[in-house]
Amino acid sequence: PLAQLNDPTLLKTDALINGQWVAGSSRFAVHDPATGAHLADVANLGPAETEAAIAAANAAWPAWKAKTAKERSIILRKWYDLLMANQDDLGRIMTAEQGKPLPEAKGEVAYGASFVEWFAEEAKRINGETLPQFDNNRRLMVLKQPIGVCAAITPWNFPLAMITRKVAPALAAGCPVIIKPAELTPLTALAAAELAIRAGIPAGVLNMITADSDNSIAVGKVLCASDVVRHISFTGSTEVGRILMAQSAPTVKKMSLELGGNAPFIVFEDADIDSAVEGAFASKYRNAGQTCVCSNRFYVQESVYEEFAAKFAAKVKTAKVGNGFEDGVNQGPLIEPAALDKVERHVKDAIAKGGRVLTGGKRLDGQFFEPTVIADANADMVCAKEETFGPFAPIFKFKTEQEAIDAANNTEFGLASYFYSRDVGRIFRVSEALEYGMVGINVGILATEHVPFGGVKQSGLGREGSHHGMDDYVEIKYLCVGDI
Ligand code: ADP
């Protein structure tokens, strides 16, 4: 698939430090999850190169922060334009290494690029404050200044968007960055880095350290231990988030964490059931269920339970599973064999504990799993507690609104939640009661660049996107001027 790029020079396999492509002393292989085909061998860097990247970023910082906001904005805007001009190639690279269907991959390119556009605009609006004086001989002000060298560690499920959502606000604020993309999807990341260079982002301001899974751990340790790195942004599992937080305690770093979810999707009896079915399908099966905001648990009120379950299963049966490059496919492969094992474990557990299979339920050849819906789910099942991160929808039954809220909140996670209702009182009651950072009401998809994305409880810290997405990349400085 990569032989057909319009611009083959976007296919980079070396890492980027201080504006130079670095081959490293060893390489790691990247594969297509749909076919198992070998795609490329990528530079496998370690602690020494990470130190070099930190030093390069720190050296590049003064000139980058000295640029005017508008100068940085113009460069970011150029990067946005280049990402969009290369949407087809970036989409192809993404489908090849990540597996999501090509239209979905191109959609992610637009979504990922939109953060660059948004923060190019926000760069010009990092406003300070003047405060009323407590003494007429003084004047009080608040400055917002770039925090310093930032590190971003990103996952494979959104190979571009999880990078731009962190890197664009950092660059806009005047911070240099070091990116450690996921080892399963480095090619999209490196292509985006190449376009950043073409856009005029200066050497050292954007560095990308590629590494295999063992070296990623070592690179993470160096980034966390560094006094120079002032901020770590991470999207990935809660388990790794906790490790990074612990490792960052000695240097008291600011952290933005976007961790696991366990999204509930509640259908009340007053819902528009057909609309709920569409929303459920979009929310569950996007990216083969491999997003942290994918619905994981479906709670449906007794009186509409069978209707919803039957309609939802019928809709899921229409899903076409296959290679993301094939026309009409809406569910690609899972990212790796371990992901498939997890889905299978959750499905088998649900069946063993009384689940009724409405559709799917089995592995297919290769790294594919049937889109699966299981009714009569109960709280003892593993899927009630753990995020499946795959194409499996368990449907639980509830009687009262309070019961649904309690079940939805019965998790240490609090990222996205969804519910369907047409009762205005209930919409406000339930929205306020759900312990989640995001609530979708009568929608199954809610992310976009100008809204605050993030979680509460153990789903993370901070918000990405929107004007709030800049907060973690600036420090507030209070000036008190006397002798006026
Ligand atoms: P996922 O559940 O999405 O596979 P992970 O949390 O395992 O997510 O990985 C997300 C990112 O974190 C990847 O870039 C991976 O290389 C990196 N990573 C995993 N473990 C560590 C670690 N101990 N230190 C630093 N980075 C890590």
Helix and strand topology:
Elements: E1 15-17, E2 20-22, E3 27-31, E4 38-43, H1 47-66, H2 69-85, H3 87-98, H4 102-122, E5 129-131, E6 139-146, E7 149-153, H5 161-173, E8 177-180, H6 186-199, E9 206-208, H7 213-225, E10 229-235, H8 238-248, E11 254-258, E12 263-267, H9 273-285, E13 295-301, H10 302-317, H11 337-352, E14 356-359, E15 372-377, E16 392-398, H12 401-409, E17 416-420, H13 424-433, E18 438-441, E19 460-461, E20 474-481
Parallel strand pairs: 7-8, 7-10, 8-9, 10-11, 12-13, 12-17, 13-16, 15-16, 17-18
Antiparallel strand pairs: 1-2, 3-4, 5-6, 6-20, 11-19, 14-15
Helix pairs in contact: 1-7, 2-4, 2-5, 2-6, 3-4, 3-6, 4-5, 7-8, 9-10
The structure holds adenosine-5'-diphosphate (ADP).
Protein architecture, described:
38% of the residues lie in helices and 21% in strands. It is an alpha/beta fold and 484 residues long. α8 links the parallel β10 and β11 (254-258). α2 (69-85) runs antiparallel to α4 and α3 (87-98) packs across α4.
Number of beta-strand segments = 20
Poorly predicted segments:
none
Q: Biggest sheet, in brief?
A: 7 strands, mixed
Give the ligands present: adenosine-5'-diphosphate
Count of helices?
Answer: 13
Distance between the termini: 68 Å
Spatial strand arrangement across the major sheet: 14-15-16-13-12-17-18
Overall structural class, as computed from helix and strand content, comes to alpha/beta
Morphology call: globular
Strand content: 15-25%
Q: What is the radius of gyration?
A: 23 Å
DSSP helix fraction = 25-40%
| Average pLDDT taken over every residue | 98
